[in-house]
What does this fold into?
Amino acid sequence: MTEKTPPATPVAPNPAAPPVGTQPVGTEKTVVLATRNTGKIAELSALLAGFGVAVLGLDAFPDIGEIEETGATFAENAALKARTVAQATGLVALADDSGLAVDELSGAPGVYSARYAGQGATDAANNAKLLAALTGVPESRRGCRFISVVTAHAPNGAEITAEGRWEGRVLPSPRGTGGFGYDPLFLDPELGRSAAELAPAEKNARSHRGHALRALLAHWPAFWAKAQT
Ligand code: ITT
It folds into this structure.
């Protein structure tokens, strides 16, 4: 991602951009999702549905450019994205930094999951590189996990964060058409199905992102109260 200095004063949302959630957008209970990944937006919006917050996407703030992920950990990058967007918009921002850690590859691609096959790489290119890296590696050594760190940051500095994990195995070839990213290569061994073979609600019930966001939401009322002070 390329670097962009956030604007000094909060930018107003573009009124033409519809909220990605189902609830009306007010000023008090609005949360901006600090991500441009459409797969994440769909999953986070579904997980937040019914939680009493209106959700805006970054498309409502065209002046916010790409945010360079300079952190060495998921936690550092999630905080970086949430803080940048909260400061730029004047609204509570929610960021996810996530990736796939493969045992045989010493935890790679990890924080580099989105750019494993190079800056701006497609999901297909990343998946092809992962399969190539694991050529000839037997099933018993293909253990992996998805990791997600979610961070909510308020313009006044209030912040909460939580992590979720999903244990699995890298398949020898893609299976399924749902989800995004490495989902077709990620086997949930308990279900015997890939993440791309799960319905969206099923994936959210088991996924790293679902676990992380549910853990975060347990602290939401106290965070929200602090965010208003
Ligand atoms: P934002 O920074 O705008 O949120 P991004 O895609 O660049 O979007 P990350 O830096 O967190 O986000 O990279 C996450 C990558 O990890 C993502 O692009 C996928 O390749 C992979 N990933 C994370 N969660 C996943 C999931 O639920 N299913 C499949 N792949 C996933």
